[in-house]
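Hey team,

Filing this mostly as a record. A colleague (T.K.) asked me to run one chain through the structure pipeline before their review meeting, and I want the input and output archived in the tracker in case anyone asks later how it was produced. No errors, nothing strange. Just documentation.

Input sequence:
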Amino acid sequence: MAIIVDQNKALSTSPLKISAPLGAALAFMGMNGCLPMFHGSQGCTAFALVMMVRHFREAIPLQTTAMNEISTILGGMDQVEQGLLNIAKRAKPSVIGVISTALTETRGEDMAGELKVIRARHAELADIAVVDVSAPDFAGALETGWGKAVTAIIRQLVVPAAPLPAMGKQVNLLPGCHLTPGDVAALKDIIADFGLEAVVLPDLSGSLDGHVPDQYVPTTLGGTEVAAVKSMGRAQLTIAIGEHMRFAARALEEKTGVPFLLLDRVTGLEAVDRLMVCLSNVAGVPVPARQRRARSQLVDAMLDGHFYFGGRAVAIAGEPALLSTYARLVSELGGRIAAAVTTQALPCLGDLPVERVVVGDFEDLEEQISDAGGCDLLIANSNGRQLAHRLSVPLFRAGFPVFDRLGAAQMVSAGYGGTRDLINQLGNLLMDCPGHNHEEHSHGHATAAAG
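Output structure:
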């Protein structure tokens, strides 16, 4: 059992935490024809926009109500109204996500009530789905905003199950924000292997997977259609990945009656086995031969890799779901978690194979590593590069943002194949650690070759 320590620092000198509004905006990027709008200052929007552009290296559609001093005091719903009308006229989106920020939440504006009035006044908004999300910066982190946005989409767009006939081949997939577009694409392929059709919410694999459009589009370039969201009540099962997706899955069950299965991760042999058993039961077919072959390859990679993980010290910093995924994988391969830092205290973190989990920043991570006597590998986003340089240890970049490497969106760690590739990547970094003896763990091949 891990002890969860919340530092509750007044000042973060090397931040790890990413704001909830950014998480909500990121979730809306997985809706097709969507244009999210921050109800707040221009600075809040610019900060989120820059981070997403640097991570995905794509054009990011994001608007703002541009609150100023006067509207902050008197109220900004006039700017929300004007913003909605401008977006509807110029971009013609299918969905507009209106995301509150700390500025408007502190003032106490009634977003849902005002939007009803605005929509009643303007017929041009009738064919556009407008989803409002309460995601202030001071409550939670990236996972929080993502989960709130998905929950809001479900509550405001999904049609209750009664009018819709059940579809035996449909399953709903609610991926957490720790999964990349590459991960989502891999999970869709796995589900398709069982003869099932997945409705994914949100689906970043369709919008931020790194493709070039035929022409300029002012909204998102793919993702989940509104019609598909409305049909989620026709599924046989909802599969949610990550603890922060529990509320969204529960909201969907309450509205449609579709039961849900919550998976803490889809990386690692045991974790992927649970997913396979679930899909096999839903589809009523055995696990496909292609997946069985991939499982065998993963087992072989684990046998090859555990020599390089055994007894090695690894430090991890990230959102709770990301931390849980990597900590459990490293532990399963014989590694030791020397330090673990995350963004918010969740009860599920108490089950991690580590002495303590600190809610803090990179400064706290460095202190933990020092107390543990150092580490061999650091797993964190790109903001951990300075710490890795000071400690002279390799950095495996994971999470959000990753802005100093190409292909962050295409990285895959889900499923048997994704886990196999991840083990190889981490193992290669551990092999290159200073002081590591390659021949010591070479099964005697180097000695035999020399003889």
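Quick notes for T.K.: Residues 151 and 248 are 4 Å apart (CA to CA). The chain has three domains: 18-140, 170-288, 292-439.
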